Amino acid sequence: MGVDAAQKELALYGGTPARTRPDPPMFPGGMEIGEEERQAVLDVLESKNLFRYYGVTDRPSKVAQFEQAFARHMGAKYALGVTSGTAALHTGLVALGIGPGDEVIVPAYTFIASAAAVIAANAIPIIAEVDDSLTLDPADVERKITPYTKAIMPVHMRGAPCDMDAIMALARRRNLLVIEDVAQSDGGSYKGKRLGTFGDVGCFSLQYHKIITSGEGGVVLTDDKRLYDRARMFHDSAGAWRRGEQSTVEPFTGGTNYRMSEITGALALAQLGKLEDLLARMRRNKRIIREGIADLAQIQLRRLHDPEGDTGICLIFFVENGERAKLVAEALRAERVSAGSMYDEGVPDWHIYRHWTHILHKRTATPTGCPFTCPFYKGKAEYSEDMCPRTLELLGRAVHLNVSPLLTEQDCEETVAAIRKVAEALL
């Protein structure tokens, strides 16, 4: 195929890149680690109190301080610090009483931990389509409900809120629990209400790639004291209380150890103070880029259920097909814009259900095959690589751009120029 005049301008074919510098690393909170975090960790080390419940001196727990500040910031009554976002999901599911015989509906586009946590709770993940927001499609959720469905797990993917009006209305109508996975959307909102506060439980991640980070870590959020106590018990080796904190529920067995350390709590508390500034900068940068390409007929921007509540961590648009998406992403990278196509059959991306091979084939740690073969489970979960064709079609023609809080206005304007340049030449 020949190269026309517009294509010759592309950096991919020898032209000058639109960006004068490449994107910075996309670790929003990680790139902000500085004196506040250093001092927070030193305070813990100097105290010699590395465990939240006791130590050599009587001083307030950093984890407890973080939990209180996080709950207050998000507008919830209770927050529980745990070791990871996956631990938050597992703990939240157990707190909700989800277990053998239950089904939980999860989206086909989410990190594998969403489904794996359901299995860890001895329940069955039922995989549903996403729509052009790349979040859970409420219509397909309703189609997937069975007599064994216990809960819905909306996942606020790539920084954007799910359609929580539709999901909560469906949950109320069908008497289902809701556990929100907010791992990729810390601080986001939907119609002015923080994500993680719509469902019975909200689960957050503080892993290094997330908006704010303590390296690893997570949070369980709820307004329900009973659920909070059940979560607290499960995450602390089935312990019923600590330091005289009485539980409102009867003790139960089967707890684990997902306790957050004081160093993690100190880092998380310092990072929480930076959350709103990070969100403001990413939202500003995304707004510049979005407005600069809004008139391009060749692309379809990802639909946002609430543009104001979007965290702004990325920009996603759709082109005509998967082959074109890969070419556009390659061309943008040549222009020094961090871009990628979102689905490649040859790459095991754990965010796409088709790559969850061990789940699709129901491979378990023991030959008994539980929870899929559990005698309490009366349903029939069937999985296949092509079970969610709409999800694969959308991801196949999607192009993803990171939107770092470290981008300058010039970076954003040059990114607009790069997208327009590539769209004119290739679409």
Overview of the molecule:
The protein is globular. It has a domain at 35-274: Aspartate Aminotransferase, domain 2, CATH 3.40.640. By secondary structure, it is α/β, with parallel strands linked by helices. It contains 14 helices and 13 strands. Helix 2 (35-47) runs antiparallel to helix 9 (262-272), helix 4 (85-95) crosses helix 5 (112-120) and helix 11 (322-334) crosses helix 14 (409-426). A seven-stranded mixed sheet has the order 1-9-8-5-4-2-3, sandwiched between helices.
Whole-number mean pLDDT: 95
Radius of gyration: 22 Å
- Roughly how much helix do the residues carry, as a percent range? 25-40%
The number of helical elements comes to 14
CATH architectural type of one domain: 3-Layer(aba) Sandwich
The total of beta strands comes to: 13
Q: What is the N-to-C succession of helices and strands?
A: HHHEHEHEHEHEEEEEHHHEEHEHHEH
Report the sheet with the most strands, covering strand number, pairing sense and barrel closure: 7 strands, mixed
Strand content: 5-15%
Q: Determine and state the CATH class of one domain.
A: Alpha Beta
Overall SS class: alpha/beta
Global morphology: globular
Sheet with most strands: strand arrangement: 1-9-8-5-4-2-3
Ranges where pLDDT stays below 50 over 5 or more residues in a row are: none
CATH homolog superfamily of one domain: Type I PLP-dependent aspartate aminotransferase-like (Major domain)
